[in-house]
Specification:
2 domains; globular; Rossmann fold; about 35% helix; two-stranded antiparallel sheet; about 400 residues; 9-stranded mixed beta sheet; alpha/beta
Length: about 400
């Protein structure tokens, strides 16, 4: 599939490449760097010119020229951008391109709509290249972070549904929606053993822990813990006829799973692409009520910046919406959104930040805990949620 060039720096760079204007090309690289894109160490053989925020990444000067071109390669001019592990192994600069692509919001938005049992596709920009992140939630499903996150989520959905008007739910980083804890992927890390497994046999739990556990048990009717529902399945299990769910995912394998899982579901729309960018197309919801779950993997060091930028745009379009942000607490990294309320102009009860610390048995490498920050938390849920961090300890 070929991508048409866009205007701005990317278009200029392609023209300079055709004319062999290396000096001009380097000037454009410098200009891109001035606009805030990390181009350090990307030389002539690996020149990547980033357009302004509304344009896309142009691959120039034979980037990955020696890379094999598997199915799905995106071709721009004479350069190619290979996807998957092979592309990352061949291209030593791939991590920089990932960062640059993410910062420019370059991931394509591909819609997979279910209509009468058939999957229809419409697309704008499609990036199958090294911009693809490697995170797969199947390795981490059911871990302590999931337990906390999904308890908060179930509580919020239930509180919002106390009013009869329909709600639009959006999951910007949906994953595969359902996970088999007996799979090789889950067994490789077995993180669920410190999360959902010890909770599974508990009796006499109070709400909202009881509500969360009952939701997970509904996917395991034989009483044995095997299937763990991700956020999409938990929300879908709670949808009323008046509600709608949008699921966004960048990883191609997860996209296919989502599309197949919800192919015949008229209340669910899968968007194969950048969830941050998709918010501009979904918000504001027609009925004026919505909840957006933002649950990134934090593979990118700029994730908080990307999240803040996306939220600023979303709040301008849908200022009274409920936004739920998950984040990890990682040793040696600044991943807590402490500066976000000030950056977004949020005051008082517009911002609720819930954090939990993992016990030594629950720790996941350098991840020592996690948090859920909520913008415009429903008042029906606030008092319940404020108790969760303390209750999580037991």
């Amino acid at each position: 599939m070929k991508l048409r060039p866009d205007a701005g720096l990317a278009g200029q760079a392609q023209q300079q490449r055709k004319r062999g204007g290396q000096d001009q090309q380097q000037a454009l690289l410098a200009q891109a760097n001035d606009e805030g894109y990390n181009t350090d160490g990307i030389g002539r053989k690996h020149a990547a010119i980033v357009a302004s925020a509304s344009a896309f990444l142009a691959i120039t000067s034979g980037l990955l020229r020696h890379c094999p071109r598997p199915a799905g390669t995106v071709i721009i001019g004479r350069g190619s951008c290979c996807h998957g592990l092979a592309g990352q192994q061949e291209n030593k600069k791939s991590h920089r391109l990932v960062e640059m692509a993410a910062r420019a919001r370059l991931h394509g938005v591909v819609r997979l709509r279910s209509r009468h049992g058939k999957t229809r596709h419409s697309w704008r920009w499609q990036s199958n290249g090294v911009f693809m992140l490697s995170y797969r939630h199947g390795f981490h499903a059911g871990n302590p972070a999931d337990v906390f996150k999904h308890t908060v989520l179930v509580t919020l959905v239930g509180a919002m549904q106390e009013k009869p008007r329909g709600i639009v739910f959006v999951d910007t980083h949906a994953g595969a929606a359902m996970y088999d804890l007996t799979s090789l992927m889950a067994q490789k890390t077995a993180e669920y053993r410190a999360g959902i497994e010890p909770l599974w046999a508990r009796q006499g739990l109070d709400s909202p822990w009881r509500d969360y556990l009952e939701a997970v048990r509904s996917f395991n009717p034989d009483g044995k813990l095997r299937y763990y529902p991700g956020s999409p399945m938990l929300i879908r299990s709670m949808l009323r006829k008046s509600d709608r769910l949008y699921l966004c995912e960048l990883h191609t394998s997860e996209q296919q799973v989502l599309a197949a899982r919800f192919a015949d579901d008229r209340q669910v729309e899968v968007i194969a692409g950048d969830g941050y960018r998709a918010l501009e197309r979904i918000l504001p919801p027609p009925g004026g009520r919505g909840l957006v779950l933002i649950d990134p993997s934090f593979e990118l060091k700029t994730e908080l910046e990307l999240m803040t930028d996306a939220l600023a745009r979303a709040l301008r379009r849908f200022g009274h919406g409920v936004y739920v942000l998950w984040y990890p607490l990682i040793e040696g990294r600044d991943t807590a959104p402490d500066a976000m309320p000030g950056a977004l102009g949020l005051v008082g009860e517009q911002w609720l930040d819930l954090r939990v610390k993992f016990s030594p048995a629950q720790r996941l490498g350098r991840m020592t805990g996690c948090g859920m920050a909520i913008i415009n938390c429903p008042y029906r849920a606030r008092a319940v949620l404020e108790r969760l961090p303390e209750e999580f300890k037991s």
